[in-house]
Amino acid sequence: MTAPEDDENRSWIEAELEETLDELFESEFNQPILTEELRKIYKDKHPDMLDRRTYYKNLLRLQVELIKLQDWVQATGAKVLILCEGRDSAGKGGVIKRITQRLNPRVARVVALQAPTEREKSQWYFQRYVPHLPSGGEIVLFDRSWYNRAGVERVMGFATPDEVEQFFHDVPEFERMLVRSGIILLKYWFSITDEEQQLRFLMRIHDPMRQWKLSPMDLQSRVRWEQYTKAKEDMFAKTNIPEAPWYIVEGNDKKRERLNCIEHILSKIPYHEIPHDLVELPQRVFNPDYERRVLPDELYVPKVY
Question: What residues does 138 pair with on adjacent strands?
Fold first, then answer.
């Protein structure tokens, strides 16, 4: 990158930092309503969290690169598939949000499937995921994926031992098929400690704006922490293949988690900047005989603010 381009990007980032202040304030006010005791415990446990200015500056820089990646995907017809897995409250949703925040939703889309229907349960296990795979020129992020079978379905007894074993037999070849078809497949496991998950669950319990994130299944994940750990270790051992390896993102610090994951995604895809024609705004056509119609007041949203 040349010096003028560096200066231009720096100016853009500084301007975006100013606009991001609103988001920062919103984030500040959206902090969970915690007791002083719990707030102190959480602060004591995170003495070295990344400062906000460093975080936002690097986030915006990386989002510039994600837009270049998006342009490359569109121009080349590449197919990118990113699987996001991890324990409940590990920060998957926050990472996905920051990846897609400034991208075109027609290019980058998120797939978060509900529990399978009775009809889907009777199908080949991977069948309900296949329609959501990326076509040429698309980036698809799975917020949980077919690895549900290796995790929650296994631990909670929703799948039989034979079904789990069949999954482990099938998934390496299924993923090799995806890679052979030209899909760039990246698999991420977002990792947090036992203590960190407990703190985050307590935050959700005490925050009316986040209580909806706690499901009965989430609460069971606390009870069955060790079972999930064993299932995760078994999953890594059986599905960490050269064609589609696992990458673990440490998530106790959410800001570092987001930046590290985006940096890694960008490092694993051979994108390059696509030149664009200079866009010029056309002149508005003005008709001197046109008179704008006055619309009735009831069509307008009341100006409460």
Answer: 79
Q: What is the pLDDT of residues 173-197, one digit of tens each?
A: 999 999 999 999 999 999 999 999 8
Measured CA to CA, the distance from residue 251 to residue 256 in angstroms comes to 7
pLDDT lower than 50: segments of the chain: 28
C-alpha separations of 272 from 134, 140, 267, 269 in Å: 20, 19, 11, 9
pLDDT per residue as tens digits for the range 24-59: 555 545 555 555 666 677 677 777 889 888 999 999
Q: Are 87 and 221 in contact (CB under 8 A)?
A: yes
Cα separation of 147 and 270, whole Å? Answer: 26
User: Where do the structural domains in the chain lie, given as residue ranges?
Assistant: 31-273
Whether residue 244 contacts residue 142, with contact meaning beta carbons closer than 8 Å, is answered with no
Q: With the C-alpha atoms ordered 52, 53, 59, 60, is the resulting torsion angle positive or negative?
A: positive
pTM of the predicted protein model:
0.85
Task: Kindly report the CATH number that applies to the domain delimited by 31-273.
Answer: 3.40.50.300
